[in-house]
From TrEMBL:
<protein>
    <submittedName>
        <fullName>Uncharacterized protein</fullName>
    </submittedName>
</protein>
<dbReference type="GO" id="GO:0007052">
    <property type="term" value="P:mitotic spindle organization"/>
</dbReference>
<dbReference type="GO" id="GO:0005813">
    <property type="term" value="C:centrosome"/>
</dbReference>
<dbReference type="GO" id="GO:1905515">
    <property type="term" value="P:non-motile cilium assembly"/>
</dbReference>
<feature type="region of interest" description="Disordered">
    <location>
        <begin position="153"/>
        <end position="179"/>
    </location>
</feature>
<dbReference type="GO" id="GO:0031122">
    <property type="term" value="P:cytoplasmic microtubule organization"/>
</dbReference>
<dbReference type="InterPro" id="IPR028257">
    <property type="entry name" value="CEP126"/>
</dbReference>
<feature type="compositionally biased region" description="Low complexity">
    <location>
        <begin position="156"/>
        <end position="179"/>
    </location>
</feature>
<dbReference type="GO" id="GO:0030496">
    <property type="term" value="C:midbody"/>
</dbReference>
<dbReference type="GO" id="GO:0097546">
    <property type="term" value="C:ciliary base"/>
</dbReference>
<feature type="region of interest" description="Disordered">
    <location>
        <begin position="100"/>
        <end position="130"/>
    </location>
</feature>
């Protein structure tokens, strides 16, 4: 048993060192007459060529990786731009929907004096006097309250205020005599 131990242990008594010593690749035997320096030169040349090919392969892989990285970055930018456009379109649609809903609400909740009636258009005389359809006296029977005497008088007198004015209808009827 002690003989086996000494047989498989290394120089320092380490068993792993002995195993690795046996597993190390041994140099190939040189042919007779081969120059020792020439063999080293060939080995250096092979090592240099191997390093060149390894560097070329690494450079190729690096260039390919950079190309893929740039392509991925371009795709991300394109997706970001499309996402931003989609968000802007959604926000614009929401803004329009809110605006339309606001207008519908305001139209539905107008006071009766502010409602635009289909048959009511301002006359040219009222427009020139600066009066709009909402400020003139309504002729519709479903008014909320009956007009006061002052409102009726100002409506009959027209835009010129309290100046005494005789209507053209009254002046044409004044020549009519009764029987």
């Amino acid at each position: 048993h002690t003989q086996l131990r000494t047989r498989y242990t290394g120089r320092n008594g380490d068993a792993t060192a002995a195993v690795t010593h046996f597993l190390r690749p041994r140099p190939l035997p040189r042919p007779p007459g081969a120059d020792y320096e020439g063999g080293l030169e060939d080995e250096r040349q092979l090592l240099a060529e191997e390093q060149k090919s390894s560097r070329a392969r690494a450079r190729k892989f690096s260039m390919e990786t950079n190309r893929r990285r740039r392509a991925l970055e371009e795709r991300r930018k394109l997706c970001d731009v499309q996402e931003q456009r989609r968000r802007e379109n959604i926000l614009l649609q929401r803004k329009q929907q809110v605006q339309e809903a606001t207008e519908r609400f305001q139209r539905a909740h107008l006071s009766p004096s502010q409602r635009k009636r289909p048959g009511q258009t301002p006359t040219p005389a009222a427009e020139s006097a600066g009066l709009n359809a909402c400020s003139t006296l309504s002729i519709f029977p479903f008014r909320a309250r009956p007009p006061t005497i002052d409102e009726a008088l100002s409506h009959l007198q027209g835009p010129f205020g309290s100046q005494p004015q005789q209507s053209s209808f009254l002046s044409s009827n004044s020549s009519i005599t009764r029987y």
